[in-house]
Design brief:
3-stranded antiparallel beta sheet, ABC transporter involved in vitamin B12 uptake, BtuC, 362 residues, mainly alpha, single chain
Protein backbone atom coordinates (compact mmCIF):
# COMPACT_ATOMS: atom_id res chain seq x y z
CA UNK A 1 0.00 0.00 0.00
CA UNK A 2 1.43 3.35 -1.01
CA UNK A 3 2.33 5.85 1.66
CA UNK A 4 0.78 9.33 1.65
CA UNK A 5 3.81 10.87 3.36
CA UNK A 6 4.99 12.53 0.16
CA UNK A 7 1.52 13.55 -1.01
CA UNK A 8 1.53 17.32 -1.83
CA UNK A 9 -1.89 17.77 -0.22
CA UNK A 10 -0.73 16.14 3.04
CA UNK A 11 2.49 18.17 3.06
CA UNK A 12 0.49 21.33 2.43
CA UNK A 13 -1.84 20.60 5.35
CA UNK A 14 1.09 19.91 7.68
CA UNK A 15 2.77 23.16 6.65
CA UNK A 16 -0.49 25.03 7.19
CA UNK A 17 -0.74 23.61 10.71
CA UNK A 18 2.80 24.74 11.47
CA UNK A 19 2.10 28.22 10.12
CA UNK A 20 -1.06 28.47 12.23
CA UNK A 21 0.77 27.34 15.37
CA UNK A 22 3.55 29.87 14.74
CA UNK A 23 1.06 32.65 14.03
CA UNK A 24 -1.10 31.85 17.05
CA UNK A 25 1.85 31.73 19.44
CA UNK A 26 4.21 34.16 17.76
CA UNK A 27 4.41 36.43 20.81
CA UNK A 28 5.47 33.52 23.02
CA UNK A 29 8.10 32.36 20.51
CA UNK A 30 9.36 35.94 20.16
CA UNK A 31 9.55 36.22 23.94
CA UNK A 32 11.69 33.08 24.09
CA UNK A 33 13.89 34.35 21.25
CA UNK A 34 14.47 37.72 22.92
CA UNK A 35 15.26 35.99 26.22
CA UNK A 36 17.97 33.99 24.46
CA UNK A 37 19.37 37.06 22.66
CA UNK A 38 19.48 39.26 25.77
CA UNK A 39 20.99 36.42 27.78
CA UNK A 40 24.03 36.50 25.49
CA UNK A 41 24.23 40.27 25.00
CA UNK A 42 23.28 41.57 28.46
CA UNK A 43 25.42 40.86 31.51
CA UNK A 44 23.24 39.68 34.38
CA UNK A 45 20.09 39.40 32.27
CA UNK A 46 19.77 35.62 32.62
CA UNK A 47 19.43 35.45 36.39
CA UNK A 48 16.73 34.65 38.91
CA UNK A 49 16.94 38.15 40.36
CA UNK A 50 16.43 39.85 36.99
CA UNK A 51 13.55 37.60 35.92
CA UNK A 52 11.83 38.19 39.25
CA UNK A 53 12.38 41.90 38.77
CA UNK A 54 10.73 41.80 35.33
CA UNK A 55 7.70 39.99 36.73
CA UNK A 56 7.54 42.29 39.75
CA UNK A 57 7.56 45.41 37.57
CA UNK A 58 4.89 43.82 35.35
CA UNK A 59 2.35 43.30 38.14
CA UNK A 60 0.16 46.40 37.85
CA UNK A 61 0.32 46.23 34.04
CA UNK A 62 -0.96 42.64 34.17
CA UNK A 63 -4.09 43.85 35.96
CA UNK A 64 -4.60 46.74 33.55
CA UNK A 65 -4.13 44.38 30.60
CA UNK A 66 -6.66 41.96 32.09
CA UNK A 67 -9.18 44.80 32.39
CA UNK A 68 -8.60 45.85 28.78
CA UNK A 69 -8.89 42.23 27.63
CA UNK A 70 -12.48 41.97 28.85
CA UNK A 71 -13.38 45.34 27.32
CA UNK A 72 -11.65 44.83 23.96
CA UNK A 73 -13.25 41.41 23.47
CA UNK A 74 -16.65 43.15 23.50
CA UNK A 75 -15.40 45.51 20.77
CA UNK A 76 -14.90 48.42 23.16
CA UNK A 77 -11.96 50.20 24.71
CA UNK A 78 -11.27 51.79 28.09
CA UNK A 79 -8.90 54.75 28.05
CA UNK A 80 -9.59 55.65 31.68
CA UNK A 81 -7.93 52.70 33.44
CA UNK A 82 -4.58 54.43 33.95
CA UNK A 83 -6.14 57.38 35.77
CA UNK A 84 -8.62 55.19 37.66
CA UNK A 85 -5.56 53.39 38.97
CA UNK A 86 -4.13 56.74 40.11
CA UNK A 87 -7.45 57.70 41.76
CA UNK A 88 -7.56 54.43 43.68
CA UNK A 89 -3.92 54.78 44.75
CA UNK A 90 -4.38 58.34 46.03
CA UNK A 91 -7.74 57.70 47.73
CA UNK A 92 -6.59 54.58 49.55
CA UNK A 93 -3.35 56.27 50.63
CA UNK A 94 -5.17 59.45 51.72
CA UNK A 95 -7.57 57.40 53.82
CA UNK A 96 -4.70 55.55 55.46
CA UNK A 97 -2.79 58.78 56.03
CA UNK A 98 -5.69 60.57 57.76
CA UNK A 99 -6.53 57.58 59.96
CA UNK A 100 -2.90 56.92 60.82
CA UNK A 101 -2.19 60.55 61.78
CA UNK A 102 -5.34 60.62 63.94
CA UNK A 103 -4.50 57.22 65.51
CA UNK A 104 -8.10 56.13 64.87
CA UNK A 105 -7.28 52.43 64.64
CA UNK A 106 -4.44 49.93 64.41
CA UNK A 107 -2.29 49.58 61.26
CA UNK A 108 -4.08 46.44 60.05
CA UNK A 109 -7.54 48.02 60.31
CA UNK A 110 -6.32 51.21 58.64
CA UNK A 111 -4.77 49.31 55.74
CA UNK A 112 -7.92 47.22 55.22
CA UNK A 113 -10.24 50.25 55.29
CA UNK A 114 -7.96 52.23 52.96
CA UNK A 115 -7.88 49.31 50.54
CA UNK A 116 -11.65 48.89 50.52
CA UNK A 117 -12.28 52.60 50.01
CA UNK A 118 -9.75 52.83 47.17
CA UNK A 119 -11.24 49.85 45.33
CA UNK A 120 -14.84 50.78 46.12
CA UNK A 121 -14.61 54.35 44.78
CA UNK A 122 -12.81 53.12 41.68
CA UNK A 123 -15.98 51.25 40.64
CA UNK A 124 -17.85 54.53 40.06
CA UNK A 125 -15.97 55.59 36.86
CA UNK A 126 -16.59 52.14 35.40
CA UNK A 127 -20.29 52.31 36.23
CA UNK A 128 -20.60 55.72 34.57
CA UNK A 129 -18.64 54.52 31.52
CA UNK A 130 -20.88 51.47 31.22
CA UNK A 131 -24.11 53.45 31.48
CA UNK A 132 -22.95 56.03 28.92
CA UNK A 133 -21.88 53.32 26.47
CA UNK A 134 -24.69 50.80 27.00
CA UNK A 135 -27.68 53.05 27.71
CA UNK A 136 -26.88 56.18 25.72
CA UNK A 137 -24.80 54.63 22.89
CA UNK A 138 -21.83 56.93 23.49
CA UNK A 139 -18.79 55.53 21.62
CA UNK A 140 -16.44 53.80 24.14
CA UNK A 141 -13.51 55.92 22.96
CA UNK A 142 -15.34 59.18 23.73
CA UNK A 143 -16.95 58.05 26.99
CA UNK A 144 -13.74 56.68 28.50
CA UNK A 145 -11.65 59.56 27.17
CA UNK A 146 -13.96 61.96 28.97
CA UNK A 147 -13.67 59.90 32.15
CA UNK A 148 -9.89 59.92 31.61
CA UNK A 149 -9.85 63.68 32.15
CA UNK A 150 -12.48 63.81 34.91
CA UNK A 151 -10.82 61.16 37.06
CA UNK A 152 -7.40 62.71 36.63
CA UNK A 153 -8.70 66.13 37.68
CA UNK A 154 -10.38 64.72 40.80
CA UNK A 155 -7.22 62.82 41.73
CA UNK A 156 -4.99 65.88 41.41
CA UNK A 157 -7.48 67.91 43.47
CA UNK A 158 -7.35 65.34 46.28
CA UNK A 159 -3.55 65.11 46.44
CA UNK A 160 -2.79 68.69 45.25
CA UNK A 161 -0.31 67.29 42.76
CA UNK A 162 1.91 65.59 45.38
CA UNK A 163 2.27 61.91 46.31
CA UNK A 164 0.49 60.92 49.53
CA UNK A 165 2.97 59.69 52.16
CA UNK A 166 3.24 59.04 55.93
CA UNK A 167 1.30 55.77 55.76
CA UNK A 168 1.06 52.96 58.36
CA UNK A 169 4.27 50.99 59.05
CA UNK A 170 4.49 47.52 57.58
CA UNK A 171 2.62 48.48 54.42
CA UNK A 172 5.63 48.25 52.11
CA UNK A 173 6.74 45.01 53.72
CA UNK A 174 3.52 43.34 52.55
CA UNK A 175 3.87 44.56 48.98
CA UNK A 176 7.58 43.87 48.65
CA UNK A 177 7.96 40.64 50.60
CA UNK A 178 8.92 37.24 49.21
CA UNK A 179 7.66 33.71 49.68
CA UNK A 180 11.06 32.23 50.54
CA UNK A 181 14.22 33.76 52.04
CA UNK A 182 17.42 31.71 51.97
CA UNK A 183 20.71 32.52 53.68
CA UNK A 184 23.05 30.02 51.96
CA UNK A 185 24.41 27.39 54.32
CA UNK A 186 22.71 28.89 57.36
CA UNK A 187 18.95 29.29 57.35
CA UNK A 188 15.77 29.89 55.39
CA UNK A 189 12.30 31.16 56.18
CA UNK A 190 8.90 31.79 54.60
CA UNK A 191 7.32 35.25 54.16
CA UNK A 192 9.92 37.04 56.29
CA UNK A 193 13.69 37.36 56.59
CA UNK A 194 15.41 34.79 58.84
CA UNK A 195 15.50 35.93 62.45
CA UNK A 196 18.84 37.17 63.73
CA UNK A 197 20.18 38.06 60.27
CA UNK A 198 22.94 40.66 60.42
CA UNK A 199 23.20 43.74 58.21
CA UNK A 200 26.39 42.37 56.63
CA UNK A 201 24.48 39.25 55.49
CA UNK A 202 21.69 41.08 53.64
CA UNK A 203 23.53 40.93 50.31
CA UNK A 204 23.95 37.17 50.67
CA UNK A 205 20.22 36.68 51.20
CA UNK A 206 18.45 34.95 48.31
CA UNK A 207 14.83 35.97 47.81
CA UNK A 208 12.53 33.69 45.81
CA UNK A 209 9.04 34.47 44.40
CA UNK A 210 7.78 37.93 45.37
CA UNK A 211 4.44 38.04 47.20
CA UNK A 212 3.20 40.32 44.43
CA UNK A 213 3.62 37.57 41.84
CA UNK A 214 1.68 35.08 43.97
CA UNK A 215 -1.13 37.58 44.49
CA UNK A 216 -1.43 38.49 40.84
CA UNK A 217 -1.17 34.87 39.73
CA UNK A 218 -4.20 34.05 41.88
CA UNK A 219 -6.19 37.09 40.68
CA UNK A 220 -5.40 36.52 37.00
CA UNK A 221 -6.19 32.79 37.28
CA UNK A 222 -9.64 33.69 38.62
CA UNK A 223 -10.35 36.09 35.77
CA UNK A 224 -8.91 33.66 33.21
CA UNK A 225 -11.34 31.03 34.49
CA UNK A 226 -14.27 33.47 34.37
CA UNK A 227 -13.50 34.44 30.78
CA UNK A 228 -12.87 30.90 29.56
CA UNK A 229 -15.30 28.71 31.50
CA UNK A 230 -18.34 30.73 32.56
CA UNK A 231 -21.51 32.05 30.93
CA UNK A 232 -20.27 35.59 31.57
CA UNK A 233 -17.15 34.89 29.52
CA UNK A 234 -19.15 33.27 26.71
CA UNK A 235 -21.45 36.28 26.56
CA UNK A 236 -18.38 38.52 26.36
CA UNK A 237 -17.15 36.77 23.21
CA UNK A 238 -20.67 36.61 21.75
CA UNK A 239 -21.19 40.38 22.10
CA UNK A 240 -17.80 41.09 20.53
CA UNK A 241 -18.47 38.68 17.68
CA UNK A 242 -21.86 40.14 16.78
CA UNK A 243 -23.94 42.36 19.04
CA UNK A 244 -27.09 41.77 16.98
CA UNK A 245 -26.64 38.00 17.16
CA UNK A 246 -26.06 38.25 20.91
CA UNK A 247 -29.33 40.19 21.34
CA UNK A 248 -31.21 37.60 19.28
CA UNK A 249 -29.70 34.87 21.46
CA UNK A 250 -31.32 36.46 24.50
CA UNK A 251 -28.23 38.09 26.03
CA UNK A 252 -28.89 41.32 27.92
CA UNK A 253 -26.16 43.21 26.11
CA UNK A 254 -26.62 46.54 27.88
CA UNK A 255 -26.47 44.99 31.35
CA UNK A 256 -23.45 42.92 30.38
CA UNK A 257 -21.52 45.91 29.02
CA UNK A 258 -22.12 47.85 32.23
CA UNK A 259 -20.70 44.92 34.18
CA UNK A 260 -17.66 44.73 31.91
CA UNK A 261 -16.75 48.40 32.39
CA UNK A 262 -17.30 48.14 36.15
CA UNK A 263 -15.02 45.09 36.13
CA UNK A 264 -12.44 47.06 34.15
CA UNK A 265 -12.44 49.83 36.76
CA UNK A 266 -12.31 47.26 39.57
CA UNK A 267 -9.10 45.75 38.19
CA UNK A 268 -7.63 49.24 37.64
CA UNK A 269 -8.55 50.12 41.24
CA UNK A 270 -6.93 46.94 42.48
CA UNK A 271 -3.77 47.89 40.58
CA UNK A 272 -3.80 51.32 42.22
CA UNK A 273 -4.13 49.92 45.74
CA UNK A 274 -1.35 47.43 45.16
CA UNK A 275 0.83 50.24 43.85
CA UNK A 276 0.49 51.77 47.33
CA UNK A 277 1.67 48.50 48.86
CA UNK A 278 4.66 48.40 46.51
CA UNK A 279 5.81 51.99 46.86
CA UNK A 280 4.51 53.03 50.29
CA UNK A 281 2.91 56.19 48.86
CA UNK A 282 -0.23 57.15 46.95
CA UNK A 283 0.79 57.95 43.38
CA UNK A 284 -1.30 60.01 40.97
CA UNK A 285 -0.91 59.03 37.33
CA UNK A 286 1.17 61.52 35.27
CA UNK A 287 0.00 62.31 31.73
CA UNK A 288 3.20 60.88 30.29
CA UNK A 289 2.75 57.44 31.89
CA UNK A 290 0.39 56.11 29.17
CA UNK A 291 -0.54 53.07 31.28
CA UNK A 292 -3.73 52.53 29.29
CA UNK A 293 -1.90 52.55 25.94
CA UNK A 294 0.68 50.09 27.28
CA UNK A 295 -2.14 47.79 28.43
CA UNK A 296 -3.98 48.05 25.10
CA UNK A 297 -0.75 47.31 23.19
CA UNK A 298 -0.10 44.25 25.37
CA UNK A 299 -3.63 42.95 24.75
CA UNK A 300 -3.33 43.37 20.97
CA UNK A 301 0.10 41.72 20.95
CA UNK A 302 -1.44 38.89 22.98
CA UNK A 303 -3.89 38.09 20.19
CA UNK A 304 -6.95 40.28 20.78
CA UNK A 305 -8.62 42.27 18.03
CA UNK A 306 -9.92 45.83 18.37
CA UNK A 307 -12.89 44.67 16.27
CA UNK A 308 -13.95 42.44 19.16
CA UNK A 309 -14.67 38.74 19.62
CA UNK A 310 -11.06 37.67 20.22
CA UNK A 311 -8.67 37.78 23.14
CA UNK A 312 -7.12 35.72 25.94
CA UNK A 313 -5.95 36.56 29.43
CA UNK A 314 -2.87 34.37 28.96
CA UNK A 315 -2.07 36.09 25.66
CA UNK A 316 -2.38 39.52 27.30
CA UNK A 317 -0.03 38.42 30.10
CA UNK A 318 2.52 37.29 27.51
CA UNK A 319 2.14 40.68 25.80
CA UNK A 320 2.86 42.54 29.06
CA UNK A 321 5.90 40.43 29.90
CA UNK A 322 7.21 40.76 26.34
CA UNK A 323 7.05 44.56 26.50
CA UNK A 324 8.66 44.70 29.95
CA UNK A 325 11.35 42.25 28.86
CA UNK A 326 12.21 44.44 25.87
CA UNK A 327 12.61 47.47 28.11
CA UNK A 328 14.69 45.52 30.63
CA UNK A 329 16.85 43.81 28.00
CA UNK A 330 17.61 46.99 26.07
CA UNK A 331 18.52 48.75 29.31
CA UNK A 332 20.89 45.99 30.42
CA UNK A 333 22.55 45.76 27.00
CA UNK A 334 23.15 49.52 27.00
CA UNK A 335 20.90 50.37 24.04
CA UNK A 336 19.57 53.93 24.00
CA UNK A 337 16.10 54.01 25.57
CA UNK A 338 14.24 55.59 22.66
CA UNK A 339 14.72 52.35 20.69
CA UNK A 340 12.20 50.78 23.09
CA UNK A 341 9.41 52.86 21.53
CA UNK A 342 10.49 51.80 18.04
CA UNK A 343 10.53 48.15 19.11
CA UNK A 344 7.08 48.36 20.70
CA UNK A 345 5.68 50.06 17.59
CA UNK A 346 7.09 47.38 15.29
CA UNK A 347 5.78 44.56 17.47
CA UNK A 348 2.33 46.15 17.59
CA UNK A 349 2.26 46.43 13.78
CA UNK A 350 3.29 42.76 13.51
CA UNK A 351 0.41 41.81 15.81
CA UNK A 352 -2.12 43.70 13.69
CA UNK A 353 -0.76 42.23 10.45
CA UNK A 354 -1.05 38.70 11.87
CA UNK A 355 -4.61 39.47 12.98
CA UNK A 356 -5.48 40.53 9.44
CA UNK A 357 -3.80 37.53 7.81
CA UNK A 358 -5.40 35.06 10.22
CA UNK A 359 -8.77 36.58 11.21
CA UNK A 360 -10.14 33.32 12.61
CA UNK A 361 -7.00 32.31 14.45
CA UNK A 362 -8.16 32.67 18.07
Amino acid sequence: MASNTGDPVTIGKERSKIVIILAKNWALFFLILLTAVFSFTGKGFFSLKNFQNILYLSTIFLLLAASETYVIITGGIDLSVGFVMGLSSVLSAKTMQIMHEASIAGPVTIIILGTLIGIGISLIPGLINGVLIARYNIPPFIATLGMWGIVNGITLKICQGFPVSYLPPGLVGLGNGYLVYILPGKSFSFFHKPFGIEASQIRELIRIIPNAIIFFAVVLTIFWFILKNTKFGQHNYAIGGSRDAAIRAGINVKKHLIKVYVLSSFLAGLAGVFNVFQTGIGNFTPFSAMYELFAIAAVIIGGASLMGGKGRIIGSCIGVILLRLIENGLSITGVEPFYRFIAVGLILIIAVVIDQLFPDLF
